[in-house]
Amino acid sequence: MKFTINRPAFINQLNNVLRAISSKTTIPILTGLKMVVTDHSVILTGSDADITIESTLAASDSSYGLSIEEPGAIVLPARFFNEVIKKLPDKQATIEVFNGLQVRITSGTAEFTINGQDANNYPHLPEVESENTVELASDMLREVIDQTRIAVSKQESRPILTGIHVTLNNGILTAVATDSHRLAQRKVELPETADRDFDIVLPGASMTELAKMIADEKDGVKMQITENQALFIFGNTHFYSRLLEGNYPETSRLIPESSDTRLEITASDLLASIERASLLSHESRNNVVKLSVNPENKIATVSGTSADVGNVEEEINADQIVGNPLEISFNPDYMRDALKSFGQTKILISFTTALRPFTLVPTEEKANFVQLITPVRTY
């Protein structure tokens, strides 16, 4: 195996693949980077068993300056190899295998020799059939992930809740996440997929990495599903994620259908008030912020208290307040995450009672996006 490549372009692809490689894996070879060189490309693979990322560097792409002398395959210590490539002095780097599993890396006047492992011992990638393919706009997919992953559970006691439940049915893609204290649900109409359907749970951590990787992707993302894997194809990258096993709880019944008090406000305005109130709540033991709503006087107030530090009270400018008077307490961090997902849009917050979950929806397209938060009992 021997090839020469443009170093800066190589580093970009290495950084992508390294996202999937963890030093904590129980399978030693997965701390390595698999490199397969064919007559026309270099294929880099990294995996932690949950996520696998594969990048193909084609010789036909002039940005890589790729010159292949001899094909082959090797597994190299990922982090160390990446640091070596970063610190090489010249713009070009030549990598070759000799003496079986030793690798020589040369660039300018520098020469490194590192030990590799047999690529045949690296786990094989799952075969994903292309029949069940859905094409998604990258910005839409990223938005759906970002708006739902905030409600993914961090507790491993219920593994299924550490994922995002994604279904496709009758041309509607639905993504839901809940940690039993809050819920985020987003729907997107995909009329061209009316003949396809699936019901899967994708790990929240995997989807967070995917959202980062497609942030600058101009073209769409192809999504393919198998029994226990999902494959996302974009640019020259294949992103594999395992699926979580088990049945996701039925969440649609958790969303209230009626309300007694409604508040219409710009999400960013309320977010600023919540963040100021949380300065106090974070200093107290229970981390609670209170919202008082008085429809008769058209006044809504946010307040936070810390026995050690003091208190804050702020009247907020709501566009509309209707229904019954209400005082409700909640975790400001949950509220902050929910409000951030709406950006600058106007939202409608609907309450039933002080102890029942309340919902936040955009004033436009109410049916397509909902955040739900369970209040905190303070007495």
TrEMBL record:
InterPro entries (alphabetical): DNA_clamp_sf, DNA_polIII_beta, DNA_polIII_beta_C, DNA_polIII_beta_cen, DNA_polIII_beta_N
All residue ranges annotated as the DNA polymerase III beta sliding clamp central domain in the record: 136-250
Residue ranges constituting the DNA polymerase III beta sliding clamp C-terminal domain according to the UniProt record: 253-377
Pfam families the UniProt entry points to: DNA_pol3_beta, DNA_pol3_beta_2, DNA_pol3_beta_3
SUPFAM superfamilies, per the entry: DNA clamp
Keywords: Cytoplasm, DNA replication, DNA-binding, DNA-directed DNA polymerase, Nucleotidyltransferase, Transferase
Keyword presence, Transferase: yes
Name this polypeptide is given: Beta sliding clamp
Originating organism: Limosilactobacillus allomucosae
Higher taxonomy: Bacteria, Bacillati, Bacillota, Bacilli, Lactobacillales
